[in-house]
Amino acid sequence: MPTYPPPGALPVATVSDAMDRFGVADGIRPLWRGAALSGPAFTVWTRPGDNKGLHAAFQTIRRGEVLVVNGGGDATRALIGELVVQKAKALAVGGIVLDGAARDVAELADLGVPVFARAVTPAGPWKTGPFRIGGPIAVGGVPVSPGDWVVGDDDGVAVVPREQVDQVIGTAHALVEGEAERRAANQRLIPRD
Q: Residue 142, class by beta-carbon neighbours within 10 Å (0-12 exposed, 13-18 middle, 19+ buried)?
């Protein structure tokens, strides 16, 4: 299994640049400023507005894994709220990414678990299923398989296929160094009169 950088170590924009600007989940945003995540994907595909599969995922998800959920992009029912995120925190989940909605945004920020979602709504979820755990899904138009690297920050979320993680990390570090050199050059610019 690849070694994933800690949350915030590599900007999502730079990770995407390292993948020829692919891999960014469209429309998936952090629910609170400063939220950052980095870890292997644990995937769930659920019926829109239904969180029974998320509760089932908590039976097998491992410390540091990022719960990534294809909820069909539904914005009418929140798949998670404060109580679900308390459970995620107790299990040391690395974060949650929803192609769907969440609620209890202020409480989620207080809990400190990074949550990224397509929408926010106060309406609660259904709990009847069906769902699928551990297979390939799509989130924000990006394919996600279990073990893919999921990285998120204030700019959004990117997904790196598991077999490309080491290469993308190396390229991203090189890009960060190049950006530092350009920033230093910008500091030396002299205004023209």
A: buried
pLDDT at residue 25, as a whole number: 98
Full DSSP string of 161-186? -GGGHHHHHHHHHHHHHHHHHHHHHH
Chain segment 151-162, per-residue pLDDT in tens? 999 999 999 999
Pair of tokens at residue 125? 């979820």
- Which residues participate in the annotated binding site? 81-84, 103-104
Q: Rounded to whole angstroms, how far apart are CA atoms 155 and 24?
A: 10
Domains of the chain: 12-187 (3.50.30.40)
Give the pLDDT score at 124: 97
- Binding residues for substrate, as ranges, are 81-84, 103
- Residue 3, pLDDT above cutoff 90: no
Query: Token pair for residue 105?
Result: 């945004």
Binding-site residues for Mg(2+), please? 104
Residue given tokens 């730079």 in the structure block = 14
Structure tokens at 42: 């644990």
Residue 56 phi, psi (nearest 5)? -65, -35
pLDDT in tens, 103-129: 999 999 999 999 999 999 999 999 999
Does pTM top 0.70 for this prediction?
A: yes
